[in-house]
Amino acid sequence: MQSPFAVLALLASVAVAHTHHFSAVPNTFPDISACLSQPSVYSCENTTRIENTCCSPTPGGLVLATQFWSTYTGLEKEGQLLPKGSWTIHGLWPDNCDGSYQQYCDPTRQYDPAPGVAGVANYTGPGVDTFILEFGRQDLLDYMNKYWINQGAPNKNFWAHEFSKHATCTSTFDVACYGPSYKKHQDVVNFYDAVIRAWSQYPTFDMLASFGIVPSNKTTYSLGQIQSVLQSQTGAVPYLGCVNNGTALSEVWYFSHVYGTEQYGTYKTLNSTTPSTCSETEPIWYYERTATSEHEVNN
Ligand SMILES: *[C@@H]1O[C@H](CO)[C@@H](O)[C@H](O)[C@H]1NC(C)=O
Ligand SMILES: *[C@@H]1O[C@H](CO)[C@@H](O)[C@H](O)[C@H]1NC(C)=O
Ligand SMILES: *[C@@H]1O[C@H](CO)[C@@H](O)[C@H](O)[C@H]1NC(C)=O
Ligand SMILES: *[C@@H]1O[C@H](CO)[C@@H](O)[C@H](O)[C@H]1NC(C)=O
Ligand SMILES: *[C@@H]1O[C@H](CO)[C@@H](O)[C@H](O)[C@H]1NC(C)=O
């Protein structure tokens, strides 16, 4: 009979071979092993100092998962279209617990071609889409091109903007969190995966449609109706943004505190701390998109 040690040794050698086989595709996750010795709490709800800011977003612990409802992209001719039956991703923002925020926190990770902020230089290097492909993540790039859509400029510029403006201010994406084997742009790919995980928790189109609130150029809705529906599914009232003097629905921000990291933790949805820009008294339009601005997407 084989000794248990021989079995263990065999298992170990299988594990090594297995790791080796996949080593061509580099990791995109941080090392959270040090978080095991930290008290885990919801961000902004800690009663003692958070020592390891790789384990909980600090100070940006009021996390906003933000989305757009737009009716066109402006780049339809280039094939940049909106996903039928879905809102689109805006980003994942680290507000401070009091609602204030920082932006563009790391000039060494500035990839935004047009930040338009004093003291922040325009980036002219390769697009962030090339970073994603360096990690073999065509699947991620395809998903982003379906649901993370820019207006008036290519999608990749918007993704770069969101990373450099917001993720560089989110402590759980600090380069130091990736440990000594950090590979350049690992944090960027890890952030995009985290944005998608957060966005998947809030299927705005489906939540509204299941209560009969669908885009229409004939019928209007009230702010209260829209808020109640979203509250019934998320446990909290998100921020709703409107254009046209508060009469046309255009965005939503879901507020939360996060237990653990922004990448893998659990989000507790909270009421918005920002007043809606939609009218509380006037009817609200949730416009149908121009037919040529949207296309069918799968999954
Ligand atoms: C929560 O942790 C942060 C970061 O360490 C710290 O600045 C803040 O004072 C802590 N809050 C409390 C109530 O201890
Ligand atoms: C940065 O980009 C913006 C938008 O494309 C442009 O208007 C501006 O002139 C650029 N700034 C510099 C210093 O090149
Ligand atoms: C915008 O809406 C407010 C409140 O409904 C209204 O008093 C005001 O006249 C509107 N302004 C314009 C330019 O339509
Ligand atoms: C969130 O807002 C709703 C609607 O205004 C309110 O009924 C509820 O009490 C609020 N929740 C908290 C925790 O403040
Ligand atoms: C609905 O109205 C919006 C806003 O006027 C317009 O942009 C859009 O093309 C219209 N959609 C359809 C299908 O008529």
UniProtKB/TrEMBL annotation:
Record's keyword terms, sorted: Disulfide bond, Signal
Residues of the signal peptide: 1-19
Listed GO biological process terms: RNA catabolic process
Cellular component, GO annotation: extracellular region
CDD domains per UniProt: RNase_T2_euk (cd01061)
Enzyme Commission number(s) from the entry: 4.6.1.19
Top-level lineage group: Eukaryota
Protein name: ribonuclease T2
